[in-house]
Design a protein that fits this description.
- The chain is mostly helical and 781 residues long.
- Helices cover 73% and strands 2% of the residues.
- The protein contains 33 helices and 2 strands.
- The chain has helices at 4-26, 30-46, 49-55, 79-102, 109-128, 132-150, 157-188, 193-196, 209-223, 232-235, 241-247, 255-267, 276-306, 310-331, 334-365, 381-395, 401-414, 421-443, 462-480, 483-498, 514-531, 533-539, 541-547, 551-573, 578-599, 608-613, 616-634, 638-658, 662-683, 695-721, 729-740, 745-753, 755-778, and strands at residues 57-66, 71-78.
- Strand 1 and strand 2 form a beta hairpin.
- The longest helix has 32 residues, at 157-188.
- The protein is elongated, with a radius of gyration of 34 Å.
- The protein starts with a helix and ends with a helix.
């Protein structure tokens, strides 16, 4: 067992907890100091890549958390999870360094670090968790921490709205995912991913296959912004640029991709499947995953092509890239899986670079619109170099790593089945539009005539240059020497998805092939589209009209309808009168109890035996208590009603005495005495007694009160006749003295046998007391 995985995840949360003190102590070096842990974790995970290549799983560990439920706090690392870990920690370290300069002087910077590091640790938990319930816990933590990060500038309504939208969309998908994972674990007979995704279990053919698939896809699609849930990602650009560069290029939005890749062996069917049920499963997996992925790729690329704000351009193009990755996983061939892994890595490098560059441009010029930028290369040469390299990699120009990613996509497409032609068309359209988008976002701001900007542009601080320059340099190095990652990163990750060892040879040059010709054609058409983007946009106004009434509008309508229903329900139920709340609660509870009792057809309990056993003094106590109750109801004096209610309480206490519960009786005596005294003191200051209830209201209340009382009496009599198991009282009687060292059985039960319950009650009282004390201290003087 390798305990390093658990501590790697935990270390991120620990660093998040102590980061405010580190920020205070480290001063301007805070970003570098905080980045030391992610850098160390990057080296830690990279050191296990060779083992993952050789044996499949590089490390595994687990703790028997709840053995009775077969629930283990388990983690494992294979090629796929290690690839994500390297990206999460490596890019995370660069983002921390960048953020220290980008947000320097911000009063809430310590809070930013807490949220970002917590998110990093949560993402590590997602990709390293073996138990699917543990995975879900970390999955939801990423949604929660991303909510804090997107809404970091919480004083702006737009930031709060974007954060809430992201939380509602991904959180709703998370609930569906939970249901799907629970069903999957039940059907598979195990909640361990290493077992479910081992290739031995196939969901296809099971009666619950389609519901499970739909629920899991819903969770993955919402997280990875697939159509029709793509709208939350561009709106999340209200977050600071370091957040966008981290969450929306290489981490959070890739969580759904990871889940689909991890579960694809179990959720999809194999080529040698037999039987009609299995064939149905093939169709469902292929058409749902590939169909939604292809639609997302085209829609995202088109929306990016029509956008002008830098971060929203990059956000929509990210949506398109995520759609491409989902589409490849839907195709499911070996070439498609390898292409997905290569493109995932390439996308993380060039998209994180472009996001960071967009932040630098905004930071130094105060302009976010790409159409209003130009000629910045002379003032920001290093930023321009990083941006242009990343943009060309995004477009697929050689000899950059993005070119290899696009080559792998086209290669996989050329070997796809015949029925995959629509997916291939979607891929070609998205790739062509991406070329124009890449030039607009990464090249145009730095070429041409210098345009005036609110701030005089110059190179950003070194901390803001280090990240984009390093990532763009990595894109160049991996493009020129792809064998550096082919066997080390891509092959183990692809093998983990395919469930077998898979050799990957990446080369920059394959000769003059059909794929190269298609790639050059895409570059040529995409570049042409960049120059005709404005007239093309005018011709596409009808499409924009439809897009403006798409899923984003549905979300707004849904939220408006939900608020309207909530307002109506509040007006109906939340009247502000305590008596009405009590009336509704006890009426509904009584109605449900009567319905259940009648539905089961139970006979009324016989009370003849009870009446024969009642002794005279017991009957007198009941009669006196009942008369006191009538007096309390009919009294026209508050003090009289209080005294009568006290008599009712004393009558109940006498019943406790008669039936062997003297400690309860003493408690009742004390409570009733104090209650009467407090009521008398409080009511003494109230105005004169008055009746506000009408006669029909009194009759209604009397009927409900008598009915509920009769129901509770009936339930008590029924419970007295039911004996499901042997009474537990003998256990308390036999063990109170020996085990609890007390002769008062009730006291021993409260202090020993039910000590946790008593502690909870004491805690509630203590909290209430603190609250009362705080209210008294806050009263006006």
């Amino acid at each position: 067992m390798d305990a390093g995985l658990f501590w790697a995840v935990l270390s991120g949360f620990v660093l998040a907890a102590v980061s405010p003190w580190i920020v205070r102590a480290a001063g301007r070096a805070q970003g570098v100091v905080l980045a030391l842990l992610p850098l160390a974790l990057t080296a830690f995970f990279a050191s296990r890549l060779a083992a993952a290549r050789e044996s499949g799983i590089a490390a595994a560990e687990g703790i028997a958390w709840m053995p009775g439920l077969d629930f283990r706090l388990s983690f494992f690392a294979d090629g796929l999870s290690l690839l994500f870990c390297v990206l999460i920690c490596g890019i995370g370290a660069l983002v921390l360094i960048y953020a220290a300069s980008y947000l320097r002087g911000h009063p809430d910077l310590p809070r930013f670090y807490v949220s970002l590091l917590s998110f990093m640790a949560s993402m590590l938990g997602v990709v390293l968790a073996d138990n699917i319930l543990v995975l879900f816990v970390f999955w939801e933590l990423t949604s929660l921490t991303s909510y804090f990060l997107i809404g970091f500038d919480h004083e702006r309504p737009a930031a709060r709205a974007a954060a809430l939208q992201a939380l509602l969309v991904t959180g709703g998908g998370g609930l569906a995912l939970l249901a799907g994972l629970l069903m999957l674990g039940h059907v598979a007979g195990s909640y361990e991913l290493s077992v479910i995704a081992s290739g031995e279990f196939r969901l296809a053919g099971h009666p619950l296959a389609l519901p499970i698939l739909l629920l899991i896809l819903l969770g993955a699609f919402t997280k990875s912004a697939q159509f029709p849930f793509h709208f939350w990602l561009p709106n999340a650009m209200e977050a600071p640029t370091p957040v966008s560069a981290y969450l929306h290029s290489s981490t959070m939005v890739k969580a759904g991709i990871y889940l689909l890749a991890r579960l694809s062996p179990a959720l999809s069917a194999t080529a040698d499947a037999t039987g009609d049920a299995m064939a149905d499963a093939i169709d469902w997996w292929y058409w749902l995953v590939t169909g939604f992925g292809g639609a997302t790729a085209v829609i995202g690329a088109w929306l990016a092509f029509r956008e002008t704000y830098l971060k929203r351009i990059l956000a929509y193009s990210t949506v398109s890239s995520l759609g491409i990755l989902v589409m490849l996983l839907g195709l499911g061939t070996e070439e498609a899986v390898v292409a997905a892994v290569v493109y995932l890595l390439a996308h993380a490098l060039f998209k994180a670079t472009l996001f960071l560059v967009a932040g630098s441009i905004d930071h130094e010029t105060g302009v976010r619109d790409a159409e209003q930028l130009g000629g910045l290369a002379s003032a920001m040469p290093f930023t321009a170099a990083a941006s242009v390299v990343a943009a060309l990699s995004m477009a697929g120009f050689p000899p950059l790593f993005g070119f290899l990613g696009k080559e792998q996509l086209l290669e996989a497409a050329s070997h796809a089945p015949v029925h995959a032609v629509p997916a291939l068309v979607a891929l070609a359209v998205a790739a062509t539009l991406t070329v124009a988008v890449a030039i607009l976002a990464g090249v145009k701001p730095f070429i041409g005539r210098r345009t005036p900007t609110p701030r005089s542009p110059h190179e950003p601080p070194a901390g803001m240059l280090f990240g984009p320059v390093s990532l763009s340099a990595a894109g160049v190095a991996l493009g020129l020497a792809p064998w550096l990652v082919g066997e080390l990163l891509v092959a183990p990750a692809a093998g983990a998805i395919l469930g077998k060892r898979w050799d990957v040879e990446l080369h920059l040059w394959h000769g003059f092939t059909l794929v190269l010709g298609i790639s050059l054609a895409i570059l040529a058409v995409g570049t042409f589209l960049y120059f005709v983007r404005r007239p093309a946009g005018r011709l596409a106004l009808p499409i924009d009209w439809i897009a403006n009434r798409g899923p984003a509008r549905w979300y707004e309508g849904g939220i408006a309808a939900l608020n309207a229903i909530a307002a109506g329900q509040t007006r109906l139920l939340q009247s502000g009168y305590l008596r009405r709340y009590l009336l509704i609660c006890i009426s509904v509870a009584a109605g449900l109890a009567v319905f259940t009792y009648a539905e089961r057809g139970r006979a009324m309990p016989s009370m003849s035996a009870w009446w024969r056993e009642v002794r005279i003094h017991e009957g007198l106590i009941v009669v006196i208590t009942f008369l006191a109750l009538i007096a309390a109801v009919l009294s026209r004096s508050r003090l009289g009603a209080i005294a009568a209610m006290g008599a009712v309480g004393y009558g109940v206490a006498l019943i406790y005495v008669l039936f062997g519960a003297p400690d309860l009786a003493m408690t009742q005596f004390v409570v009733e005495t104090l209650t009467v005294i407090l009521f008398v003191l409080a009511f003494h200051h109230l105005p004169g007694f008055a009746r506000f209830s009408s006669r029909p209201a009194k009759i209604r209340d009397a009927v409900i009160a008598i009915g509920v009382g009769a129901l509770m009496t009936t339930l008590v009599l029924i419970a007295n006749e039911v004996q499901v198991a042997k009474s537990i009282s003998w256990f308390y009687a036999e063990n109170s003295l020996d085990g609890g060292h007390g002769r008062n059985i009730v006291n021993v039960i409260l202090v020993d046998f039910r000590g946790i319950d008593t502690l909870g009650e004491i805690t509630v009282l203590a909290v209430a007391g603190i609250g009362v004390y705080a209210l008294l201290k806050l009263r006006p003087k």
